[in-house]
UniProtKB/TrEMBL annotation:
Lineage: Bacteria, Pseudomonadati, Bacteroidota, Cytophagia, Cytophagales
Stored Gene3D superfamilies: 3.30.230.10, Histidine kinase-like ATPase, C-terminal domain (3.30.565.10), MutL, C-terminal domain, dimerisation subdomain (3.30.1540.20), MutL, C-terminal domain, regulatory subdomain (3.30.1370.100)
Listed SMART domains: DNA_mis_repair (SM01340), MutL_C (SM00853)
Species, as recorded: Dyadobacter endophyticus
Pfam families (alphabetical): DNA_mis_repair, HATPase_c_3, MutL_C
Domain named MutL C-terminal dimerisation: residues: 444-586
PROSITE patterns: DNA_MISMATCH_REPAIR_1 (PS00058)
Family classification: Belongs to the DNA mismatch repair MutL/HexB family.
This protein's name: DNA mismatch repair protein MutL
Length: 628
């Protein structure tokens, strides 16, 4: 009788490939694990060498303690580690690695060669492994430390290799991991080479110099020191001054016991501390280190070790928020001090007039301008107030046609009720017209709280979400630009130079054609700088840097979809982002133009993301509301 047993123990090679699925997701994962191993080995110099963004080669060389022959062989076994000995050690972890899975996982999906030697040994050890199978182990002459060469990542797992994205995208992820490890360990020298080109050459320095070396000299002016010491945690690091907040994410770093973590709750604490000092939608720069007793945290949550739990998150939140708020407050206070003024007003020199004994209030430039007396201003207003409304009476068809042209439509296309609206060409008179020429009681359109448009229809009321309507219109406009590559560009009188991070610059290289199709005109200037020469003609009025940074942010957020359909995904993300700007008061003509554009779109009922734009309240529904 055949056995009914179906459960069997997986071979180590398959088990390692399963583990690799969590630990080794892309070349950046390998770079992170090997760099952290070098830090744990007390290396003072770490070199990273890549080819094709790590697809064909990832080499990490350090001058750390190295390994003995036995340790070198054991390091590739699953759950083999020098970091812990018993379960209690999990709550006393100070090292980067401790699970003993990284090298076994890497060796399961790549061709690995390791050369390592301890300082006390005359010869080192060479080990070659292909897909968990040991090909060679022998003594070899090599420098002190460890040299890993990872070739042909995922060579034996074609499905995983096919999921890798373009070299530019994978390089962005590598740069992110490299920068995190480099920021966490400013006392260690790091170099990064990609395809024989030096990307970073970072010397052993203090934290502030490491930040400047990575992100550029412009950061020298924007950094403010932050520190708070308590019996529970110590917080230290640097924050960016409020006026340097950017539209793009990615320059926010938390390190707990020198380990990079992602923690939305703690990020909210920092953002709350900046409340009222930065514009909505902007993101401040910060590099914050939290030193805490390991017994108060749990880092054994995910193999990537970027998630963490605190035993008292509320206290950590409050301390971080207080530390950042104090740093922001000290900076704002120092900015208000006028060092050009004579602060010795209590002991004036004999030559100074006595009125210097009274401290003066420093006023902003605009407040220091000479002002007319209130009475003269009042007389002038009484005399000239009527000029504001010139042209409102006896408005002829030529005026109405000009106003309609400014709004993007013609008088002939407007409904009859709009002919009653008094409009003129100038913006001042148009605003006054909207106040005086109020809609009739039976008007068909009405705007509610600058957000919704109400229209009377045959069977009830139609409600239109104004923001969602603009999202649909902008989406179709941007998509058409990207497909036809004919976005209108408005040339700048004075070109604007902006600086990007290494990873953002990689993203610009990857999507250069799409960005230019929208109407941006730019040239590269230096390693990580761009000269913006033109911007899309129909974007909201805003600084060129903010517009470009918002574009980069949308590219980063939706890049997983861009590989499948770049015009579609980019159009959706840009439309969603910029439609927020159109939640404003609209005139009758603007409302009508909006509706014309909406109902001429491919799907006026829903946004590109599938959210409803129009809701119809029938007479029966309205009656049911009042009946309860």
């Amino acid at each position: 009788m055949p056995s009914s047993d179906i459960i069997q123990l997986l071979p180590d090679s398959i088990a390692n490939q399963i583990a690799a699925g969590e630990v080794v997701q892309r070349p950046a994962s390998v770079v992170k694990e090997l760099m952290e191993n070098a830090i744990d080995a007390k290396a003072t110099q770490v070199q990273v060498i890549l080819r094709e963004a790590g697809r064909t080669l990832i080499q990490v060389i350090d001058n750390g303690t190295g390994m003995s022959e036995t340790d070198a062989r054991m390091s590739f076994e699953r759950h083999a580690t020098s970091k812990i000995r018993q379960s209690e050690d999990l709550f006393r972890i100070r090292t980067m690695g401790f699970r003993g899975e990284a090298l076994a996982s890497i060796a399961a999906v790549a061709q690995v060669e390791m050369r390592t030697r301890q300082e006390s040994d005359e010869l080192g050890t060479l080990i070659r492994i292909d897909g968990s199978e040991i090909k060679a182990q022998e003594a070899i002459a090599c420098p002190k430390g460890t040299n890993f060469s990872i070739r042909n990542l995922f060579f034996n797992v074609p499905a995983r290799r096919n999921f890798l994205k373009s070299n530019s995208v994978e390089m962005r992820h590598v740069l992110d991991e490299f920068q995190r490890v480099a920021l966490a360990n400013p006392e260690v020298a790091f170099t990064l080479h990609h395809n024989d080109t030096e990307v970073f050459n970072l010397q052993s320095v203090k934290l502030v110099k490491r930040i400047i070396d990575i992100y550029g000299k412009s950061y020298r002016e924007q950094l403010a020191y932050c520190q708070e010491d308590t019996s529970y945690i110590n917080v230290r690091g640097y924050i960016g001054k409020p006026e340097f907040a950017r539209k793009t994410r990615g320059e926010q770093f938390f390190f707990v016991n020198d380990r990079f973590i992602k923690h939305n709750y703690m990020h909210h604490a920092v953002i709350s501390a900046f409340d009222g000092t930065i514009p909505e939608g902007s993101h401040p720069f910060y590099v914050l280190f939290i030193d805490i007793d390991p017994s108060h945290i749990d880092i054994n949550i995910h193999p990537t070790k970027t998630e963490i739990k605190f035993d008292d998150e509320r206290s950590v939140y409050a301390i971080i928020m207080a530390a950042v708020k104090k740093a922001v407050g000290v900076y704002n206070l120092s900015q208000s001090i006028d060092f050009e003024e004579n602060i010795n007003f209590l002991n004036p020199s004999p030559s100074e007039p006595n009125n210097n004994l009274i401290p003066r209030t420093v006023m902003p430039d605009w407040a220091a301008q000479p002002r007319k007396s209130e009475s003269s201003a009042s007389k002038s207003n009484l005399t000239n107030w009527s000029k504001l409304f010139e042209g409102l009476q006896n408005t002829d068809d030529r005026h109405r046609e000009l106003a309609a042209f400014e709004m993007g439509t013609t008088a002939a296309s407007r409904p009859v009720y709009q002919e009653q609206a008094k409009t003129v060409a100038s913006k001042v008179n148009r605003m006054a017209s909207e106040v005086i020429a109020a809609p009739e009681a039976d008007a068909l359109l009405f705007q509610l709280h600058n957000r919704y448009i109400l229209s009377q229809v045959k069977d009830g009321i139609m409600l239109i979400d104004q923001k969602s309507a603009y999202e649909r219109i902008l989406y179709e406009r941007y998509r058409k630009m990207l497909i036809n590559r004919n976005g209108a560009c408005q040339q700048l009188l004075f070109p604007k130079t902006i600086r990007l991070t290494h990873s953002d610059m990689q993203l610009v290289h990857e999507t250069k054609k799409e960005i230019r199709s929208l109407g941006f005109e730019f040239d590269e200037f230096g390693a990580n700088e761009l000269i913006i020469r033109g911007i899309p003609a129909d974007l909201p009025e805003e600084s060129e840097q903010d517009l470009f940074e918002e574009l980069i942010e949308q590219l980063k957020q939706s890049y997983s979809d861009l590989k499948l359909n770049k015009p579609e995904s980019l159009s959706r993300s840009l439309a969603k982002r910029f439609s927020v700007r159109y939640a404003v008061k609209l005139s009758y003509v603007e409302i009508h133009t909006l509706l014309n554009q909406l109902f001429s779109s491919s799907d006026p009922n829903r946004t590109p993301g599938g959210e409803p734009i129009i809701v119809l309240l029938t007479m029966d529904k309205l009656a049911n509301i009042f009946r309860g």
